[in-house]
Amino acid sequence: MLDIIQLLPDSIANQIAAGEVVQRPSSVVKELLENSIDAEATQIQLIVREAGKTLIQVIDNGKGMSETDARMCFERHATSKIRTSDDLFKIRTMGFRGEAMASIAAVSQVELKTRRSTDELGTMVRIEASELKAQEAISTPEGTNLLVKNLFYNVPARRNFLKSNPVEMRHIIDEFQRVALSNPDIAFSLYHNDAEIYNLPSGKLSRRIVDLFGKSYREQLAPCEEETSFVTVRGFVGKPQFAKKTRGEQFFFANNRFIKNSYLNHAVMSAFEGLMPEGSHPFYVLFIEIDPVHIDINVHPTKTEIKFDDERTVYAIVQAAVRKSMSQHNLAPSLDFDTNINYSNQFFSFNNAPTPTSTAVPSKMNQADFDSERPFAKPEMSPREKSNLSNWNKLYEGLDNTVESFEQKRVEQSSFNFRNEEDYPESQPFTLKSKANDLLESRPLRSSQDSDATTFQIHNRYIISQVKSGMLLIDQRAAYERILYEKFVQYLQKNNGTSQQLLFPSTIKLTPADFHLLVEIQDEVRNLGFDLSVIGHDSFIVNGIPADSPDENEQALIEGLLEQFKRNESELHLDRVENLARSMAKRSAGRFGMSRLSNQEMNTLVEQLFASSNPSYSPSGELTMKILGLAEIANIFQK
Questions:
Q1: Which of 3, 8, 76, 228 could cross-link to 102 by cystine, CB 3.0-4.6 Å?
Q2: CA 538, CA 617: separation in Å to the nearest integer?
Q3: How far is Cα 40 from Cα 24, in angstroms, rounded to an integer?
Q4: Across-strand partners of 545?
Q5: How confident is the model at residue 77 (pLDDT cuts 50, 70, 90)?
Q6: For the DNA mismatch repair protein S5 domain, which residue ranges apply (predicted)?
Q7: E strands of 167-303, at which residues?
């Protein structure tokens, strides 16, 4: 019987290895950028076309390679980084496995141009599908210029699994940001289809963060540093008030290598405990310097997962460093027991204003010290100020009663029109409807006398309605979210979202990652009612917004929608239509969740909720209503 075990050819073995190393264009970008860093380059340029599917080119001014090294770098397990097994426990370079270049050359067409400073001529090597096509001496600048063309051209099944260009470009930007953050002393630039995305000069880490993520980050950065004999932690953390609902801007680097570690992320989150709303995620860029003997990098080919031999100690030091940073920069809230929280309300009350009283100041403190201790204390008014205040009081006399009567009339006149138009004579003046009611389609209601007795609102948040079995309690915000969600799903399925045109179109500028995300979903976003036009590599013109959008500026509206979309995408893995409908409903429901409603509006809300496909729960799974039966109510009072 013949032997059946055979040694695989190098070309097939390289394609198998490429399955782990080269998963998508961003994997190629990561490996090539790290090679340039290991070559001690001070300027690195990344050029991509069609999100890396057609071309990925990295140009650096590093050490370059000799003629022999230029050919050897494409062989499997060929590397200049390690020599013995002991070197695995003292790795300081980004690469060391010797798999990346061989794997890339196995699934693409590669052209390498390189020259050392001591050589007069450089070397050009061209390889396709692991097969050497050409090698010759050429004139080329010092450093390395590597082109990767037509990725996965010889593996069509793998190429078909690639996502759209905006999706792949988002992954490339993510990898570029990680490498650029870990090396602020190196100048980086990124071009996509001849458009400049980033041009980052060398400088400090704080400047690199601002250049990558925007000027708004300048206000929220707080330095973080802690040095011990075992590990050193340095970097920046964001202030709690700037925390976002989405993950993605949390960066850990171990010896300048980007890592993913949920255990250390928990250390940072625990340091922020009690300072942020639940479900929020702070921004941080933290560098961990540790002796390579205490970590194991050789866990996965992507090298983003490492193991610490004493992970608990690292956890404690990271947590202590973040807490120390917050205490030093006054990021933790403090309690002021001298502050009168009711003072601001009294200060702006013109009617029945309280008579100002003087406060005794201890003799050992001067007035300036006292004011600094009580920043909200009300100073004693001069006679002239008292006279001015009395004059202002006369001017506003009776205003409260007038405002209350006016508001009552406006609510009555602007109630939702539930009757047919023919019931009204043409001579009747036109009144504006409440904008919140436009969300709900009119339905026949009970008489106003009956609805007044059975439905009412508490704290502008909950609706209580009488039912046969007892009492119905509705969460107003969750109910709106359910109704709006089904409305937006209909818009997306039928492509008929209503748009409210802006009087003056506004220009919004997004981060490169958010820009490519919006480009990716722009067709669906237009179906919601947005009227957008691309005007650059990071900007849009907004001509219209959905008629049911929250009352906020266009920049905040779109950024909030994208943030919610990314959060759903990472946590729930929804399809695009479902994700957008949920995201927009979540954003819009907050606008109506704390608003005052008339009886007609409340009853219409209840009817629309029960007409939905799942009235008991919001799209995110929150309970929208609770029925308290008569027996349950009686049990509360132990009857």
A1: 76
A2: 38
A3: 26
A4: 500
A5: confident
A6: 209-327
A7: 187-192, 195-200, 221-227, 231-238, 250-254, 257-259, 284-290, 295-296
User: Which of 52, 32, 47 has its CA nearest to residue 196?
Assistant: 47
pLDDT at 314: 92
How much of the chain exceeds pLDDT 90, in percent?
22
Please answer whether residues 483 and 638 qualify as being in contact, where contact means their C-beta atoms are separated by less than 8 angstroms.
Answer: no
Cα 209 vs. chain centroid, distance in angstroms?
15
> CA-to-CA distance for 406 and 502, rounded, in angstroms?
29
- The C-alpha angle 489, 494, 499, rounded to 5 degrees, equals 80
pLDDT single digits (tens) 163-194: 888 889 989 999 999 999 999 999 999 999 98
Residue 334 has pLDDT above 70, yes or no: no
Burial of 502 per CB tally in 10 Å (0-12, 13-18, 19+): middle
- Cα separation, 517 vs 512, in Å, equals 9
How big, in percent rounded to 5, are the helix, strand and coil portions of the chain? 40, 20, 40
Q: Considering just the CA atoms, what is the radius of gyration of the chain in Å?
A: 32
- Residue 496 near residue 631, CB atoms below 8 Å: no
Confidence (pLDDT) at 134: 92
* CB 56 within 8 Å of CB 28: yes
